[in-house]
Structure formats: structure tokens, C-alpha cells
Design brief:
Pfam families: DUF4199 (PF13858). The protein is an all-alpha fold and 170 residues long. The protein is built from 7 helices and no strands. It is 87% helix and 0% strand. The mean pLDDT is 94.
Length: 170
């Protein structure tokens, strides 16, 4: 099993740790680091997946990788990124409750300033539901949201990278 997932463990862990570090740095620079951290995730996730698949292909599988192997290694990689990043962000927000309150107030401010636009696009009920959800938000919600937004693009990038790197023995 280590043959298949050794590189996934390494690059998934590295990607998750880099994502948590990026959140910490962005929190120091911005009042609401969540949006910029999502963008960072769109960069680090495909890089981590590519490196995990490339290292698996070149160093563990004699230069070959099937689509199924690519999907398996990629799945483990982006899930590790998501788990480590989500847990790390959750722990940071539990450790620094004032940061969480800043993020929450920033999201409420954006909702308030965009109220008319949001209501015209999705209706009053959707706006009120979103407002209620943001008001009842807890630190775990932010960590979970970050993890989900690592998994969804991770699947997409894994499919593409697995197809590009695929090379089966003849």
C-alpha cells in the first residue's frame, strides 16, 4: 500500500501544512483571510496532486501510471490537504477567537452592503436564510468550508492530471 500512497502522503501533508501556514499569514495581513486562502488552495492543490502523481509514476511505478492509479493517489492527496487544512484552520480559529469574530463580522458586513443585489438575484427568503446562517456560524464551519473547497477542485484537477500523466505499459 505504501507503494501507491507514499507520495500522496508526502505531498498531501505538505499541501495541507502550506495551506494552514498561508491562512495564518493571510490572517495577519487581512481581516478576513478566508477568500484569499481559497485562492491559495486553488494553486497549492493542483501542484500537490501533480507532484504526488509524478513522483508515484517516476519513482514507485517504473514510469507508468494508469488512470485508476492516478485517481487513487490524487484522491488521497487532496483528501489529506483538505483534512489538514480544515483542522488547522479550525484550531487557529479556536485559539484566536478575536480572529473568528473579525471574519464573522466581515462576512456580515458584506451581506449587509450587498443586501439589495442579493435579494434581487435570489430573493428575500434566501437572503434571510444566509444571514441567519452567517450569524450562527462557528469556527468549525469555516474549517469545514475550507476543506470542502479543497476536495471539489481536487477531484477536478486529479481527473485532468491523471489523464495527462497516464502511461500504461504496452
Amino acid at each position: 500500500m505504501n507503494k501507491y500512497f507514499g507520495s500522496a502522503y508526502q505531498f498531501g501533508t505538505l499541501g495541507g501544512i502550506l495551506s494552514v501556514i498561508a491562512f495564518g499569514i493571510l490572517a495577519w495581513m487581512e481581516p478576513d483571510p478566508t477568500n484569499l486562502n481559497l485562492i491559495f488552495g486553488y494553486v497549492i492543490t493542483p501542484i500537490s496532486i501533480f507532484l504526488a502523481l509524478k513522483f508515484f509514476k517516476d519513482y514507485s511505478n517504473n514510469g507508468f501510471i494508469s488512470f485508476a492509479e492516478g485517481m487513487s493517489v490524487g484522491f488521497v492527496t487532496y483528501c489529506l490537504i483538505a483534512i489538514i487544512s480544515g483542522l488547522g484552520i479550525w484550531i487557529i480559529l479556536l485559539s484566536f477567537p478575536e480572529l473568528f469574530e473579525e471574519i464573522k463580522s466581515s462576512k456580515l458586513e458584506v451581506l449587509g452592503s450587498s443586501k439589495d443585489t442579493i435579494i434581487s438575484q435570489v430573493g428575500e427568503d434566501s437572503y434571510q436564510s444566509t444571514l441567519k446562517n452567517v450569524q450562527s456560524m462557528v469556527p468549525f464551519d469555516i474549517g469545514l468550508n475550507d476543506a470542502i473547497w479543497k476536495i471539489i477542485p481536487g477531484l477536478f484537477f486529479t481527473i485532468i492530471i491523471s489523464i495527462i500523466l497516464r502511461k500504461n505499459p504496452n
